[in-house]
Design goal:
heterodimer, A: mainly beta, eight-stranded antiparallel barrel, 11 strands, B: alpha+beta, five-stranded antiparallel β-sheet
Chain lengths: ~220, ~325
């Protein structure tokens, strides 16, 4: 499992941030019934920008921490996930634009929706000791384990998004609904599984989108 | 934070504050004024090369006390190497342009490198504050670091990027055509998802007599289909007999071809021909104008600049024949 997690993470990173332009639907917006603005100029007018559509395969990694109940424990959750998303931009991007601190090739639509399959590949649970003799002592133990698989749908606009789905832990068979919210790289995730396991996590996610762009 | 703030004292001394002020004024006022030029570029490099290692060193000393002794060496050497690569290697420069902003690839900017040596010497001599500062002082010092970091990172606004290319029909061979007493020349003036606009210029090359040219009929033949055009505008307006041109004058006829041009593009139809029926001295003739659908880079309209010289009409009586 650990090797698989490592492989997922490495593949995510190797994917990098790239985008490709598809020529489909490329002509722009014109009103041919209206004469050109400068009829004497021997030029083709620049057509209006129709905007663009994007389909993206979006692998990434996440690092979240928080708390879960029953038994109460702190959680550090390192995961890998991949999303398939579709979205649109009102205005087409320009590869010549300067975008501070965004890697070359990074391209995601301004609004859209998608599905995410994720796996909490490594979990560190900080469990309070259940030994009655040490009950009064501030003593806890750490348990390293693998975590649940997540499948969810989500929608986003600009840097904000929200999603809902289901989480399933192959080791324990626990499963239940989960909710996710994003603000840029900051992510919050909460889920409720049977036996009253409730957890809420907050942290970061990094995505490395591979995006196909075409005109609208 | 108070312990961290204790290490920030070198950043509050006059040399660092002067470099900070110089960088801010130079990058955000002078470079955007009429004084912009070689001097502003070098000033920016000198101030930045002094300030960056100082800022990075004091922050490193504050966050990682165990690295305090080596921090200034590492940051000065690292800054010098990074700056040299930025100014000499086109790949590094292009990479930085994507992440940070446009930076001139200019080896003469390396003349500013001694500023790093000054930072090294100065950092060796400065020491942190003897006492841990109060909270209010600590907050003020951290604010200075934040401002300095912002000034180092924020580069002047980048020049506008080149306009996006777009897809349009263009005429591939345009030698013009005789049109009775005048001559005609055509070009695609609009092209988009819903159709194509063709403009025809009618010229009277005679400098003595007027010339009347009947408004030509135009059609488009694309992948075996024929699309008839409608005349949207004639400038100046045509009379019954056609367009009357005074000596050495020109007129324009604009035709609209309404078709699903997007579907045509998606089907891979890249070649077509315009068929313009003209009245000639020998009767009528069909002028076949080959065209292709391809990607173009806007040269004039997108940037609002001057039109390319070839796009402006010439006096038809000026000689030189048809272009």
């Amino acid at each position: 499992m650990t090797r698989a997690a490592l492989l997922c993470a490495v593949l995510s990173l190797l994917g990098g941030c790239r985008h490709w332009h598809r020529p489909h639907d490329a002509p722009g917006l014109v009103d041919v019934r209206t004469p050109p603005r400068e009829i004497a100029l021997e030029l083709v007018e620049t057509p209006g920008d129709p905007g663009e559509r994007m389909v993206s395969i979006n692998p990434g990694v996440s690092m979240l921490s928080g708390y879960r109940t029953n038994p109460g424990s702190g959680v550090l959750d390192l995961g890998a996930e991949v999303s398939l998303l579709r979205g649109e931009n009102e205005r087409s991007h320009n590869d010549g634009d300067q975008r501070l601190f965004l890697p070359p090739g990074f391209q995601l639509p301004d609004r859209g929706y998608g599905v995410t399959l994720g796996w909490s590949a490594f979990r560190l649970l900080e469990v309070e000791s259940d030994d009655p003799e040490t009950e009064d002592v501030d003593e806890s133990r750490s348990i390293a384990t693998t975590g649940p698989v997540h499948l969810r749908g989500y929608a986003f606009k600009n840097w904000f998004g929200a999603g809902a789905g289901w989480t399933f832990d192959p080791q324990t068979g626990d499963h239940g609904p989960e909710l996710v919210g994003y603000a840029g790289v900051v992510t919050a995730r909460t889920c409720y599984t049977r036996d009253d396991h409730f957890e809420i996590l907050l942290g970061y996610q990094m995505k490395f989108p591979l995006t196909f762009v075409q005109s609208r | 934070m108070r312990r961290f703030a204790r290490e920030l004292v070198p950043l509050l001394r006059p040399p660092a504050l002067a470099a900070l002020a110089l960088l801010a004024v130079n990058d955000h006022l002078l470079k955007e004024s009429a004084l912009a030029g070689v001097v502003t570029g070098k000033l920016s490099d000198i101030a930045g090369l002094f300030l960056l290692p100082v800022l990075a060193t004091v922050v490193t000393r504050g966050l990682f006390p165990k690295l305090a002794r080596q921090a200034h060496v590492a940051w000065c050497v690292g800054t010098a190497i990074a700056f040299a690569l930025l100014k000499l290697d086109p790949r590094v420069n292009a990479f930085a342009a994507h992440w940070w902003g446009v930076n001139t690839l200019d080896p003469t900017d390396l003349l500013a490198l001694p500023a790093v040596a000054l930072a090294w010497i100065w950092l060796r001599r400065t020491k942190p504050a003897a006492e841990t500062p109060r909270w209010t002082t600590a907050v003020r010092r951290v604010a200075v670091v934040a401002v300095a970091g912002g000034v180092c990172i924020a580069t002047p606004a980048a020049p506008p990027p080149p306009p996006r290319p777009f897809v349009a029909w263009t005429i591939t061979s345009n030698a013009g055509h005789e049109a009775g007493c005048g001559r005609a020349r055509a070009w695609v003036s609009k092209s988009g998802k819903t159709g194509i606009g063709l403009t025809l210029r009618l010229e009277n090359p005679n400098d003595l007599e007027p010339c009347t040219i009947p408004v030509p009929v135009a059609a488009l033949e694309i992948a075996g289909r024929a699309v008839r055009a409608s005349v949207v505008e004639t400038h100046p307006p045509a009379r019954n007999a056609g367009v009357v041109l005074d000596p050495c004058r020109m007129a324009y006829v604009y035709y609209a071809f309404e078709l699903d041009n997007e579907a045509s593009w998606n089907r891979g139809e890249r070649d077509a021909r315009f068929l313009v029926t003209l009245a000639t001295t020998a009767g009528t003739a069909t002028w076949e104008i080959p065209a292709e659908h391809r990607t173009l880079t806007p040269e004039h309209h997108a940037r609002g600049g001057s039109p390319p010289p070839d796009s402006t009409p010439r006096n038809p009586c000026a000689g030189g024949g048809e272009r």
